[in-house]
């Protein structure tokens, strides 16, 4: 009898009006903002994520630079998501959008009226031969800020570094936070100076792409910084293999495919990153594999009840939490417009212009605050030259942003660079 009930439960799809795949930055921000909206029954929302923990990933750069404790970079999902929202600790393996249905890794089926995809970008440590083995070897001086434990490992080796060759790498785009591989480089160049080992150290920076940064204004400033810091820059140089035991990194020249071996004493490696596979397998992706949405409305180009936000979308902007903060109110307004107010796509009220931001530590308690939108058009918030390193920006990134993330964003009252004002205005005009 019990067996029959069990089987029946598993054979029937569970319906939830709004399903969200992924419980990272975008999902938390969207659900927190929805919780303030009028007429939203939070039990009509269901989030899926196999991870028990939620990570504030931007802090991992600071972990690798010796400025932040990795233990402060994560919290349990339960402590952050509203208790009234259903949370399933499962990965979604396939979506069948024609049937408004998807399947989770335990074989269960789920149906929805609206679906939001926010599964981020997949960090592929195995995408470079030998890298994962070198990272997992506690005695090998190889680390990466693209995972908390590898960031901690890198920090430890960098702290104890006595000089030699320090090599930093950056893969092909897209990656999350395109500036992060440089931030960790500059923070550690400063650390080597502070620790008195800079004169005994040569630093190489290998970038796969042919420019220092994607936005010309900031690229020029950063190129100058690289020169001043006497860093040996290699453009179009892609890390293809790490031989941890021999302390050798192999690079491929992107023009002529010639391989060069570089002996290192310390290696910071950034792995290639790709769209989660289930997106393409569900027919929801574009040629790149990311969810194919309208770049202004965030609504899927084919399925008019599927949305995407953040790193798993194909929005042609840099993949950052700052971009997510800017996308969230747009997605929430547009979603409610169709879902609750039963309006058509033609009259969607909000348009995303591609805003994103990359706070680049340049060492010596300074930071360049790069802000731009679609087509790499500079879109700065402050009345000063943001391509020049400044102390104020350093404290924004190091001290204020982590506070804003855990205390304001997670509560749905943070609107990115617009701060908490829109929330306050909506509250007093009762427009939630
Ligand atoms: C080292 C580093 C430095 C960074 N620095 C900055 C910075 O300075 N400024 C900035 O703005 N941003 C920065 N970022 C980028 C920022 O963290 C991301 O852009 C942001 O987290 C994207 O949010 P998201 O919700 O799209 O993805 P994520 O926050 O990555 O969340 C995705 C979630 O989806 C889940 N998931 C994956 N697959 C499935 C599946 N099949 N089913 C269910 N769940 C799934 C994952 O477990 C994860 O919890 C940095 C990131 C890194 C790694």
UniProtKB/TrEMBL annotation:
Domain FAD/NAD(P)-binding span(s) in chain numbering: 18-133
Protein name: Sulfide:quinone oxidoreductase, mitochondrial
Keywords: FAD, Flavoprotein, Mitochondrion, Oxidoreductase, Quinone, Transit peptide
Compartmental location: Mitochondrion
Residue spans crossing the bilayer: none
PANTHER family for the chain: SULFIDE:QUINONE OXIDOREDUCTASE, SULFIDE:QUINONE OXIDOREDUCTASE, MITOCHONDRIAL
Upper classification of the organism: Eukaryota, Sar, Alveolata, Ciliophora, Intramacronucleata
Biological processes per GO annotation: sulfide oxidation, using sulfide:quinone oxidoreductase
InterPro entries reported for this sequence: FAD/NAD-bd_sf, FAD/NAD-binding_dom, Sulphide_quinone_reductase
Alphabetical list of Gene3D superfamilies matching this protein: FAD/NAD(P)-binding domain (3.50.50.60)
Single GO MF descriptor: sulfide:quinone oxidoreductase activity
Cytoplasm among keywords: no
Chief localization: mitochondrion
Family: Belongs to the SQRD family.
Cofactor: FAD
UniProt keyword Lipoprotein present: no
Pfam families for this protein: Pyr_redox_2 (PF07992)
Domain of life of the organism encoding this protein: Eukaryota
Gene Ontology cellular component terms for the protein in this record: mitochondrion
């Amino acid at each position: 009898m019990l067996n029959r009930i069990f089987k029946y439960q598993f054979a029937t799809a569970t319906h939830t009006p709004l399903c969200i795949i992924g419980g990272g930055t975008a999902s938390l921000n969207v659900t927190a903002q929805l919780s303030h909206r009028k007429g939203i029954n939070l039990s009509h929302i269901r989030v899926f994520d196999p991870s028990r923990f939620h990570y504030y990933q931007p802090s991992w750069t600071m972990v690798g630079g010796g400025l932040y404790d990795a233990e402060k970079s994560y919290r349990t999902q339960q402590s952050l998501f509203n208790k009234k929202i259903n949370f399933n600790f499962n990965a979604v393996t396939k979506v069948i959008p024609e049937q408004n249905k998807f399947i989770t890794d335990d074989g269960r089926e789920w149906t929805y009226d609206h679906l939001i995809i926010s599964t981020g970008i997949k960090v592929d440590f195995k995408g470079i031969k030998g890298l994962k083995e070198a990272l997992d070897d506690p005695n090998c001086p190889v680390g990466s800020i693209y995972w908390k434990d590898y960031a901690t490992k890198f920090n430890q080796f960098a702290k104890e570094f006595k000089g030699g060759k320090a090599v930093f790498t950056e893969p092909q785009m897209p990656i999350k936070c395109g500036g992060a591989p440089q931030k960790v480089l500059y923070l550690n160049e400063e650390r080597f100076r502070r620790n008195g080992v800079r004169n005994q150290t040569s630093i190489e920076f290998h970038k796969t792409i042919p420019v220092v940064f994607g936005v010309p204004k900031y690229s020029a400033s950063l190129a100058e910084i690289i020169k001043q810091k006497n860093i040996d820059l290699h453009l179009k140089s892609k890390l293809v293999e790490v031989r941890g035991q021999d302390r050798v990194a192999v690079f491929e020249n992107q023009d002529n495919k010639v391989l060069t071996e570089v002996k290192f004493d310390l290696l910071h490696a950034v792995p290639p990153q790709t769209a989660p596979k289930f997106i393409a397998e569900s027919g929801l992706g574009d040629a790149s594999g990311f969810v194919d949405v309208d770049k202004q409305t965030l609504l899927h180009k084919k399925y008019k009840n599927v949305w995407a936000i953040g790193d798993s979308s194909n929005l042609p902007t840099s993949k950052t939490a700052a971009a997510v903060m800017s996308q969230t109110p747009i997605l929430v307004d547009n979603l409610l417009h169709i879902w609750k107010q039963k309006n058509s796509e033609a009259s969607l009220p909000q348009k995303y212009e591609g805003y994103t931001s990359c706070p680049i530590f340049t060492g010596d308690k300074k930071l360049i605050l790069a802000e731009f939108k679609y087509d790499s058009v500079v879109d700065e918030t402050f009345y000063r030259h943001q391509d020049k390193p400044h102390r104020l920006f350093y404290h924004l990134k190091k001290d204020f942003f982590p506070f804003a993330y855990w205390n304001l964003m997670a509560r749905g009252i943070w609107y990115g660079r617009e701060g908490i004002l829109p929330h306050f205005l909506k509250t007093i005009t009762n427009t939630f």
